[in-house]
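Hello,

Our lab assistant flagged a job as stuck in the queue for most of the afternoon. It eventually completed. Since we weren't sure the result was trustworthy after the delay, we are filing this so someone can double-check. Below is the sequence as submitted and the structure that was eventually returned. Let us know if re-running is recommended.
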Amino acid sequence: MKIFITRRIPQKGIDLLTSAGHDIRIHDSDMPLTAIELIQASQQVDYVLNGGMQKFDAHFFQHCPNLKALSLMSVGYDNVDIPAATRYGIPVSNTPGILSGATADVAFLLMLAVSRKAFFNHKRILHGEWKGFDPTAHLGIELNNKTLGIYGLGRIGFEFARKARAAYNMEIIYYNRSRNEEAERVLGARYVNFDDLLTQSDVLSIHAALTAATAGRFNRDTFTRMKNSAILINTARGRLINESDLTQALQNGQLWGAGLDVTDPEPMDPNNPLLNLENVCVLPHIGSATTETRDNMAIMAASNLIAASRGEQMPQTINKEIYT
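-- returned structure --
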């Protein structure tokens, strides 16, 4: 079978596909494909493995009638029109679970870095502004015994909450579409409504999927209801936050700080005012960026396509109804 990979992925995934006898074609460039280039390349193959953030809309599926399956090397799939894929008979798979620990580590890193204004203070050294000891300048806040609120307590949120409770004895509250009984039993997590999540959290960490219902959920209205001593963390998707409203809230003192591994858009404009705020830490979407995690993601994405090539259901299929 012919497989097109939209971006070079870790070699372990490529080796798995080639050892299975498949013909691999890779877009080996830092530049993303245009919509036309993506269609043209996909029309020549049986399967596509998306190694980046290419978009797959109804127009794509309409013009790739020979495509048999699409495998994503990611957990999120907001870049894919799943209903359109289903209409055109294309199963779509992702890589859930594998990156939970690595992404939770980044959420923890951001929480700690924001609480101590670490990125800003590092830049002071680079700019020659470290002149000596000042007992009142650029002070952070401590995390011990604070309340951590989780918006979307799934696998990643659970791992982050577990680390925060172990390190800082943080009380865990969460808001979900449904109760997470394991988190309540293991972590003593307390289920609250959305308003209580906003008003009670000292640190509020976003771990929900991007959907029509969650896009822009964190905005001027929500920021006014949060503590002005609160830290906001986002390792999910940038569009869950209205960045303009976030910037104003931070500048006006409605929030104490923010840590972002995802932005809207990506890449972030280097002139974005958030990058120059003392109480903000921004990373370039590195939640899953460890050798171990990326290797395992590539292996899972490749394994999904190997299953499809054998006429089997892909183990991590998103639109499972396509097989019924």
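-- support follow-up --
The delay was a queue issue, not a problem with the job. The result is valid. The first helix runs from residue 11 to 19. Residues 58 and 287 are 29 Å apart (CA to CA).
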